[in-house]
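Translate sequence into structure tokens.
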Amino acid sequence: MLPSSSSVVFKESTYFSQNGPETPLPSPAEVRARQHHLRYGPIYFESLNLLVKYGKNITIAEGQCLWALRRFLPSQVPVPEVYGWCEDNGEVFIYQELVKGVTLENRWESLVKEEREIVCEQLLVMLLELRNLKQDPKDQFVGHINRQPLLDIVFTADTKPSAGPFASVKEFHDWLSALTKRGMATHWPDPSQIPDPCRHLLPDDSPITFTHADLHPSNIMVSTENPCRVVAIIDWHQSGWYPEYWEYCKAAFTAVPDGEWEMEYIPRFLEVADCFDAWSYYPRAYGY
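Result follows.
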């Protein structure tokens, strides 16, 4: 069972073993006091080995995801340790480990081809392990880890309806298709006849797998020393149970078009999805 309270502190976490059992997590007020008025983002407490993500768009589900991955895949898929979370004045605060290292995005240009390939080999092993997380075959769904709506930025916006959860991949695909037709119904006598050139190309029989949904080099932390190794995959805000192809499609779509990351390196750790061209129609239709 996922910890579901709106306020959780994991007293057994390394935060308390390293900083002392009586060292409290910083309060929301203390976190907000460190926020630069011109730059909104995570708050760092380096002396405490602590990073705090907070805001109205941050969800407890991300903390639950980190908790679950550390519990069920503790050495296979490296993620920041979560120390706790809370809600305050409409904002969620997630207290997590400050991972030591740099993003792959920042180190990529300094890596030679062999080093890049080794990083991809490590990612391949991690993602295969991630796919070992399974839903109950009798209770499958497409949605966030806690059965809340998905939060992929492809389709999340204040003007769009909540993304699920969905009882099947087909139901999810039908929703993706319907989203492209919003606002068009007044011009069609029969809204069901509004064309969608790609719906039939989305595989309704796709397995449902646990997915990061934003495997961009900026979310892959690597070591600063050689040999270069992956030390953590971060930012699980958009993660959840998606059709199997989603991980590849999203990673390729957010890469530089036809660049080496998309064409040469992503296929080293993710299986190329045959439906990528069809899938790409949807984020473009949503204006992403």
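Note: DSSP finds nine helices and ten strands in the chain.
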